[in-house]
Amino acid sequence: MKKLFLIIILITSVNCFSQQSDKEILKLNDAISLTLKNYPLLKKAVKNVDVFNAKIKQQESFDYPVVNAEATYTRIGPIPSIGLPGTGSFELAPVNNYDAHIAAYYNLYDFGKKDAELDLVKSYKKTAEDNIDFVKSELTFAAIRTFYSILFLEKSIAVNETDIETLKEHIDITNRKIESGTATDYDLLSTKVRLADYKSNKVTLQNQLNNQIILLKHLTGLSKNQGFNLSGDFSLLTTKINLDSLIQVAFNQRQELTIAMDKENSAHLKKNITSMADRPNVNLQVSYGLKNGFEPNLDAIRGNWSAGIGVSIPIFNGFRTDAQVEEAKANLNVSEINTMEIKERINSEVQKAVDNINSNLEQIKTAELKINLAEQALEKAKAQYASGVGTNLDLLDAETHLADAKFLYLKETYNNIIHSYELKKAVGDITW
Q: Is residue 225 packed enough to be buried (19+ CB in 10 Å), middle (13-18) or exposed (0-12)?
């Protein structure tokens, strides 16, 4: 029997170790790295830069001539001819006409329109590149918030389970006291009500934990069946706060403001391009090929060439250019207003983050005081209960108050961590 018992213990230990080893240990940096590696939104932002790289190549292609190979066959009739007295008639064109040539077209000068178009596309690319940093910042903060939410909920469930075990012990003690006649059914019912409340709270916390685990797997790209254990420091963070300097830092670092200014610059460039629409174009055309129809032998295929310069000058297009310029000015005004709005929002977010941290620090002091008072009250309740002066409910109340105070401190520690990262995000200091 002893050997069988030892074998069972050994098998159980091996299975438990195997289950633990199947779970991946995730640190905060691991969660961030996996999120930035696997989340589709960042891949989309990177691919968007590739789109504008291709557009830049398209725009730069206008620096080269356009070369086309062209071939035509035309049969005509009646054949044009002239007649001379005494010599008969002469045909001026063949019945079957062949023409094959290579033609090159080149824009010699467009008064800056081509370069302006290239500058505009490059400005769009810069916006796309800055958007990558913005997406990284947003995803990093999402990973951080989810990571610490899971840690907080796991610790909350652990505290809750401790409270449940304490209440179960109280129920056992109360049952024994009822049997001995030193407690009433009211004491038992009160304890059971509290136990039911804590069990209900545990269900709620577990559901929230499951949701956060699903979210973290979604962010990091881990499979639905992949288990993991988080490894991270869950302690108070200290943050130096100087509101005026933080707002200026935010204006220099926030990617949203950088993107807004990029768009404002693009709107300026677009307005300039639109105002160039009425400028002329100077083009060069050169071609060489083979065709028939030349005297004296109209059917003979001969080499031929042509070259010329053309100028296209817009004169009137139904006031379309004026309307387009007006539209470009309106879009520029919208971009400028958007930049101002983002500055105001950044200002507000920094102030809000600072206020949250200051308020949180006061809440932490309150939570620490409550724990201290609750511990003193519990010691007195235990002494009174041991001497027979206090009741089980008095002791239960004291234990509940201490548990609530510890949970409050745990919650405010979580808030301290999140508010600290919110301030980093507000000033554009989230690193990846």
A: exposed
- Domains of the chain with CATH codes: 24-63+110-279+314-426 (1.20.1600.10)
261-317 residue pLDDT tens: 999 999 999 999 999 988 999 999 999 999 998 888 888 999 999 999 999 999 988
307 pairs with which residues across the strands?
286
Instruction: Match 């031929």 to its residue by tokens.
Output: 304
> Are 357 and 412 contacting, i.e. CB atoms less than 8 angstroms apart?
no
Amino acid type, 252:
N
Residue 318, sorted as left (phi over 0), alpha (psi -120 to 50) or beta, turns out to be left
pTM for the whole thing?
A: 0.82
**Which residues are CB-neighbours of 392 under 8 A, at least 6 positions away?**
170, 173, 174, 177, 183, 187, 191, 385
The CA distance from 126 to 398, in Å, is 62
**365-369 long-range Cβ contacts below 8 angstroms, 24+ apart:** 366/408, 367/405, 367/408, 367/409, 367/412, 368/409
